[in-house]
Specification:
By secondary structure, the chain is of the alpha/beta class. It has nine helices and nine strands. The structure holds (3-methoxyphenyl)methyl 1~{H}-pyrazole-4-carboxylate.
Length: about 260
């Protein structure tokens, strides 16, 4: 608590500046829903810079043919460089690109505590390597597929990061316990009615026995993660008993689900 009675006030709100050829794509998404409300309330800022405004030729050209030949076009260095430099000093300049390192929940957590982040959206085959080498601090990918432009990836990064800023999510949407916070995928969720189309909710969830409910959910998380994301399981902190339980499941001696 500070002198003015404020709670957990920690400097100016996080500001994302998105460099793009399609600023409306960004503005449209962040203007709605949870993010829109957070921005209106001043909990964060999302600004856009139109890279085409930094061209200097009659045709507002942002791309050119690749040296060495080949298909596709490359984003010219001058407009992107001028757009980046127009923003001034920031904590991080990030390029979103299919050949970046994977963006993870850990990045979202770390970035939610920063003050200012520039996100550069590429198009075409990519941007001139000299811009990457001299003006970009970090290159991230949101997954192993190719998009038509970096805007959707930038929005993914913004959404994943801003929902971790205190106050952005309401109590009902709290980010306390969700997938990846403990390195595992989520357990199944059920709500009323207790029987729907002859399908009952697992009885343990109606038992009121919270220790048993927690144990059941933990086991469901472990089993589901083992099935669909064994790579996550390898890194998650599991007890020896949990590892043994999972091995029992894969080695054939199947018992019914408890
Ligand atoms: C991001 N996963 C896929 C596409 C080139 C910077 O150069 C390029 C950027 C893009 C857009 O980003 C993605 C992407 N993570 O496609 C091509």
């Amino acid at each position: 608590m500070g002198e003015g009675g404020e709670v957990d006030e920690v400097g100016p709100p996080l500001c994302f500046t998105v460099l793009t050829l399609f600023p409306q794509l960004i503005a449209g998404y962040v203007g709605e829903g949870v993010l829109g409300r957070a921005l209106t309330r001043g909990l964060a800022r999302v600004e856009t810079v139109d890279v085409r405004d930094f061209t200097t030729d009659r045709y507002r050209t942002v791309d050119d043919v690749p040296f060495g030949g080949g298909a596709g076009m490359v984003m010219k260095p001058e407009p992107i460089a001028a757009a980046i430099e127009s923003v001034g000093p920031v904590d991080r300049r990030v390029l979103v690109t299919p050949d970046g390192r994977p963006f993870t929940q850990a990045d979202a957590v770390a970035w939610s505590g920063l003050g200012s982040i520039v996100l550069v959206c590429g198009r075409y085959e990519g941007i001139d390597q000299r811009v990457r080498d001299t003006l970009i601090d970090d290159e991230i990918s949101i997954g192993d597929y190719v998009l038509s432009g970096g805007e959707l990836a930038a929005l993914v990064v913004i959404d994943a990061t801003l929902r971790l800023v205190p106050g952005v999510l309401g109590n009902a949407e709290s980010a306390q316990h969700e997938s990846f916070s403990d390195g595992l995928l989520e357990h199944p969720h059920f709500t009323r009615p207790a029987v729907w189309r002859d399908l009952p909710v697992p009885p343990v969830l109606l038992s009121g026995h919270h220790a048993r409910i927690d144990a059941w959910r933990r086991r469901q998380s472990l089993r589901h993660t083992a099935r669909v994301r064994p790579d996550l399981l390898a890194r998650a902190p599991l007890t020896e008993a949990e590892r043994r339980d999972l091995l029992d499941l894969t080695s054939g001696d199947e018992e019914t689900d408890r």
